[in-house]
Predict the 3D structure of the following.
Amino acid sequence: MATTADLSNGAFIRHNGELCQVLEYIHRTPGNLRAFYQVKLRNVKSGKQMEHRYRAGEDIEFVRVEFKEMQYLYKDGTSLVMMDLETFDQVYIDETLLGDAAKLMKEEMIVKVAFEGDTAITAEPPTFVIMEITYTEPGVRGDTATNTLKPATTETGAEIMVPLFCNAGEKVKIDTRTGQYVERVK
């Protein structure tokens, strides 16, 4: 059994029978009281965040999680079909593991998927994707002085906000963590 001294950000532990990921932890020693660890956890299945206080030296059950880089092939209902790049096995993962970034997925993208045994528990798309704008209102020349945004539709059907100078047919870089426009790509 591991103890609280082995905690690290991103580690997977079993807390109250549920699989949780450590988001952050702080070791506190308040005055003449006993030391403790204040840990912020995220439940992997439900996505809920919680905080828990562990005594220093308390036993914690760490869970072994295997990360694989997989290639996104296509969408099948509410599942995404991923292919293992080494064995060419196809795995169905739930679209909710990617959250809002699932709208920005294109075929052949490389996704980092975490497995507990044979079950996919988290999926992380690339940080930035390059998409082509398929529809947006035409921009007006000289409208670059203000930081005004307009809606645009990408090639995957996702709606994003872009600056006024972006037009249909142009490629833009999008942050998958926030779904926001980063820059125009030539």
In short: The mean pLDDT is 89. The chain has no helices and 16 strands. The two ends are 53 Å apart (CA to CA).
